[in-house]
Amino acid sequence: MNKNKSLKKILLTIVMALFGILFMSPFIWMISASMKPEADVFLFPIQWVPKHWHMVENYKTVWTTKFPLYYWNSIKVSVITTALSVLFSSMAAYAFSKIKFRGSAVIFIIVLIIYMIPSQAILVPQFLLLRWMGLYDTHVGLILLGSFSVLGTFMLRQFYLGIHDEYMESARIDGAGHARIFWTICTPLVRPAIATYAILRFIWTWNDYQNPLIFLRTKTLYTLPLGIHSFADLNGEFYSLIMAASVSAILPLLIIFIIGQKQVIEGISMGGVKG
User: Fold this and answer.
1) Are residues 150 and 112 in contact, defined by beta-carbon separation less than 8 angstroms?
2) Helix axes 191-207, 67-98, angle to 10 degrees
3) What is the mean pLDDT of the chain?
4) Cβ atoms within 10 Å, residue 57
5) Which residue ranges does the record assign to the ABC transmembrane type-1 domain (predicted)?
6) Residues with Cβ < 8 Å from 274, sequence gap 6 or more?
7) In this structure, are residues 230 and 222 in contact, taking their beta carbons and an 8 Å threshold?
8) How many CB atoms lie within 10 A of CB 6?
9) Quick count: other Cβ atoms within 10 Å of Cβ 82?
10) Do residues 207 and 146 touch, judged by C-beta distance below 8 A?
């Protein structure tokens, strides 16, 4: 019986490993192609390890264009958007979960209804609003659009609801107000959830193509998704260069996920426990 269980476990591990390799193969091909000369990119059978290395030349070509400017624009927009979105979503989540005020349930339902509206349906009102405010074709306008998240508010509210009211009552006896309770008591208790949302918000903003395409016109303001599209227009016949640009673009996401994966797993586990 034990031998059968061990055999099933080994077979299952092998099958899962094969699926993992299958799903990783496009990513591995992209990295491999970014290090080859153009003539070797589409050789068949595929050379997963390049015979002729051209990595330095490919990456040097990419980074001597406007790519660093697009990179900086993406870092600026993503970091500020993530910080503001985490702050506003946390404050709204705390208010909806821990502060009793008239109409809070109705307002929260309205917030959820807004979440159900497709983002494409409100592009025109957002476009008109930003033009009226003089923020069209600016990073400030793009950051403001991503700083308020219904999903972030809803997600964090569920975690704030899990904090026992006894903590708050004890803090109130010591003279603490809502601001102090929020910063020093409640927010540290939901730190894994906040870290999870911050990582997801950063990834969504970093990969966002739609909003920069609609709300940015000046090329010097482009973020990476638009920058790679522009780079591909100029170097469309050089796939090794496009792959080098793509690998460069995803490096920050890999670093952030590797650093924050423990917090993400912990946050998801907390969410699973709370149901």
Assistant:
1) yes
2) 140
3) 86
4) 14
5) 71-260
6) 158, 159, 162
7) yes
8) 10
9) 24
10) no
Question: What is the spatial distance between Cα 86 and Cα 195, in angstroms, rounded to a whole number?
Answer: 9
pTM of this structure: 0.84
Tokens (6 digits) for 41: 């990119």
Question: Confidence band (pLDDT; 50, 70, 90) for 213?
Answer: very high
In eight-state DSSP terms, residue 182 is: I
Residue pair 156/193 in contact by the 8 Å Cβ criterion: yes
Token pair of 193 as six digits:
């959830």
Q: Identify the DSSP state of 183.
A: I
Contact between residue 260 and residue 199 where contact means Cβ atoms under 8 Å apart = yes
- 111 to each of 2, 93, 117, how far by Cα in Å? 54, 11, 10
Q: How far is 196 from 136, CA to CA, in rounded Å?
A: 30
Averaged pLDDT, 175-182: 86
CA separation for the pair 191, 156 (Å, rounded)? 10
